[in-house]
Specification:
Length: 608
């Protein structure tokens, strides 16, 4: 039975990806709710049925009170069958109806709706560009991905568990009192009007207050995660107290926003108790007065009393449900600031996979300034022949990393085009482009997974032998066999920690190299590929790198000029432009920037 309801909706079902998700709450929620449309209709109907049954039971209890005014034997003879049928309904049918209602909510909606939002939101965020991630905290993004789905699920749950139920209950209560005596509707309607005013006042304030509180919590998460992610820097500079103060500002801001939110609930609670007192005195008092006038039976008074006491008990729950509903919508609204952002760097319509045969790269009038007036690249024209090895040097900020990011299409150029074997990379599928490029970065961060998983990231379908061969070429196999994590996993099964923190810089770099060796892409980008290695290992790895370069088109960035001296051609970038190019010997002979860099090197490093 549980599995039936749990599998009514597949949270991982296919869906059309939307590069521009709805920016308003209702369309946003409706887009995610499409797979649940039938379930929501049934849940709404069941909520009405459950409320109607409860009101009907109260009305029937009033009828029982009136019936019991006669002689017991006569009452049983006349109404015994009715009582038995009512008992059967209460004992058997009512639990079945209630079970269907809660199974739909607890086992179909709650687990699957939040899961679906989290899955789709994560998929959407992963499609964002590198630049998008560079403009936000990873901790805040993750926090929104984690807290938005349960908030959306809770909001939907409250719609059917509380809001729909209470609406049906109020309608049923009005019908019941009207059938007893239409005048009993007067105090109920007055109370409902005042209650609606209180709800409106509360809801108007809770949503924004909840969003402010949610924003504040995300700020705390972002600052705390930032400190934890950079714990080496925190400890190195002995800045624990500084980080505490930095986090305290956000924590105190979170406390104050939460205090403001709680003030609303306190005012609501006190006002609600007062209104409920008016409800009880109004309806029960009027029913009692009608009974004294002979216009109402004892059963009517009993039913009115039971109904108002039930409403008194429910109103606090309903108010909390409504405020919870709007609080959760506030959390969703805050999450939408991340998961509803449009995808700006997308594949062109009808984008085809990159077909790379030779590996020729052409840059034509290429410019990119990150939305600024200066910086980046300015009108670069360059042709790299298939299999050519290019060294790229320049001062910090000269545009080297920008060029690499544009080749990977992490950004779209402001102007100009990049061609690979004659194909404009903005017109091909992004994944296919990056499939043809191997990249070794200076920041050799790893995934918080096993060594095996990290190496196989380069080619997931590679065999064990191929993986080990790549590790051996990267001079990583021997130290990998000696690894053991705190859980006792050894060798290739050992976990490397967040960003590979459990390994030394050189070990991380060699695993990164093994990953790229295993990928064996026809275009190779090297960004200070041996910067974290000691001289002895670097000399060995250099031979491996030169072996990797055979038959590939290579662009290598280096500050240590000796690592690129053997390249076919060296490009010198300055202020976003290519100012010198040629072989190592030619550039030394020119006596320009490159020659100056070479002369000023100490231990092979570029003076920047």
């Amino acid at each position: 039975m549980f599995k039936f309801f749990e599998n009514l909706v597949d949270p991982y079902c296919d869906f059309p990806e939307n590069d521009h998700p709805p920016q308003r709450m209702w369309p946003f929620m409706m887009e995610y709710a499409r797979p649940f449309k039938a379930v929501f209709w049934i849940a709404g109907i069941m909520s009405f049925v459950v409320a109607a049954i409860e009101v009907g039971l109260i009305a029937y209890m009033g009828r029982v009170v009136d019936i019991l005014g006669g002689e017991p034997a006569q009452v049983w003879a006349e109404y015994g069958t009715e009582f038995i049928l009512a008992a059967v309904f209460i004992l058997f049918l009512r639990p079945i109806i209630q079970a269907v209602d809660v199974l739909l909510l607890n086992n179909t909606v709650l687990p699957n709706f939040g899961t679906m939002i989290r899955w789709r939101a994560h998929k959407h965020v992963l499609r964002q560009s590198v630049g998008w991630f560079e403009n936000d905290f990873a901790g805040r993004i993750a926090n929104r991905i984690m807290q938005t789905p349960p908030a959306a699920g809770e909001a939907v749950f409250q719609v059917f568990d509380s809001i729909t139920f209470s609406l049906a209950y109020f309608i049923g209560a009005g019908v019941l009192l009207m059938q007893a005596d239409v005048r009993l509707m007067v105090p109920l309607l007055i109370w409902l009007s005042l209650y609606a005013v209180l709800v409106g006042w509360t809801v108007k304030r809770v949503g924004p207050a909840s969003k402010r509180a949610s924003d504040a919590r995300s700020l705390v998460t972002g600052r705390v995660v930032d400190a934890y992610s950079n714990i080496h820097s925190v400890k190195l500079f002995a800045h624990s107290s500084h980080e505490l103060d930095y986090a305290k500002d956000a924590i105190e801001h979170s406390r104050k926003t939460f205090q403001q939110e709680m003030r609303i609930f306190t005012i609501m609670d006190v006002t609600l108790v007062t209104l409920n007192g008016l409800l009880i005195l109004g309806v029960v008092g009027w029913a009692f007065w009608l009974w004294m006038q002979g216009a109402a039976s004892v059963g009517v008074v009993a039913a009115a009393t039971a109904l108002t006491l039930r409403l008194n008990a429910m109103t606090g729950w309903i108010m909390w449900a409504l405020t919870s509903f709007f609080r959760q919508l506030g959390v969703v609204a805050e999450g939408m600031e991340t998961i509803a952002q449009p995808i700006t760097l997308v594949d062109a319509p009808g984008a085809h996979p990159l077909q790379l045969d030779a590996g020729k790269i052409e840059l034509q009038s290429l410019s990119h300034h990150y939305g600024r007036e200066a910086g980046g690249l300015n009108n670069i024209n360059l042709t790299i022949q298939p299999g050519e090895k290019i060294g790229l040097i320049g001062r910090s900020g000269a545009g080297k990393s920008t060029l690499v990011k544009l080749l990977l299409r992490f950004y779209d150029a402001d102007s100009g085009v990049i061609l690979m074997d004659g194909q404009d990379i903005s017109e091909v599928a992004q994944d296919s482009l990056r499939d043809h490029i191997g990249m070794v970065q200076q920041d050799s961060s790893l995934l918080h997974r096993s060594v095996r998983d990290n190496i196989l990231y380069g080619r997931p379908d590679a065999s064990e032998a191929q993986m080990i061969a790549a590790a051996k070429k990267a001079e990583a196999h021997d130290f990998i066999l000696d690894l053991q994590d705190p859980e006792g996993r050894k060798g290739y099964e050992a976990q490397v920690g967040e960003r590979g923190v459990k390994l030394s810089g050189g070990q991380r770099q060699r695993i990164t190299l093994a990953r790229v060796i295993l990928k064996d892409a026809p275009i190779l980008l090297l960004d200070e590929a041996t910067s974290a290695l000691d001289s002895e290992v670097e000399a060995i790895i250099q031979q491996t790198l030169y072996g990797m370069m055979e038959g590939k088109t290579v662009i290598a960035i280096a500050h240590r000029l000796s690592t690129i001296a053997q390249m076919d051609r060296i490009l010198v970038l300055d202020q976003g432009q290519i100012v010198e190019e040629g072989s190592h010997a030619d550039l030394l002979a020119e006596g320009g920037l490159y020659a100056g860099f070479w002369q000023r090197q100490s231990g092979g490093f570029l003076d920047v």
